[in-house]
User: What shape does this take?
Amino acid sequence: MPGGRLTLQERRQIALGLADGLAYAEIARGLDRPTSTVTREVLRNGGPAGYRADLAQHATEHRAHRSRQSAARRVRPVSPEDGRDAEAVREYEEAFATVFTDAGLPKMTARLLVALYTTDSGGLTAAELVRRLQVSPASVSKAIAFLEHQGLVRRERDEGRRERYLVDDDVFYESIMTTVRANLRLAETARRGVEVLGPDTQAAIRLEGIARFVDVVADSIRRSADEAREILHAYREEHSPRPFS
Assistant: This one.
């Protein structure tokens, strides 16, 4: 099985495979490469819809040049004692951040959220985020404000009275419930329009239809989120370290 970096020809084969709707595993078999190699390559270079072979080749060459010029500018060197592969961690974090940016998060915000999720403690101070991401304090502050507004992070003070920003089990649950509440407000507002416009008008019928649709969707999301949270809590309880007796 070949190793090393992908060639331009291999990247063009990946692009053709994506255009034909092939799965990553099938593309990888055609290249005699691991599926993980193809997956990382696509996710870090625009995703399935945005992947371009020539641009991916240029980006790889640019990253290699930048790395040679200044190793200190890497996102986060991993200390040898943590037992992790620094390059594999870095590539995973880039792929994870790409998922969030494809979902609509700004790039800096996505990187910060990934930094919190991939930290064993689940929390970092502003200074730690600045060092880890190699960005300015203002960039961290702006990203934190955005994530707090979305309900994706919370803050608390540690023993040294420093603020730490954290993600925990209920972060995504609370974010989803924020969406549910927004949808219910939409339904309520639509129904007020029914009263204003008159129940027998076409506009009122349209608004009542919207309200009923949103009601059903919001209730389904809420019930699914409640069930998923119970599953998550049970999993975390099962896998949490047990205190010594």
Remarks:
- DSSP finds eleven helices and three strands in the chain.
- Residues 127 and 137 are 7 Å apart (CA to CA).
- Confidence is low (pLDDT under 50) at residues 71-75, 77-81.
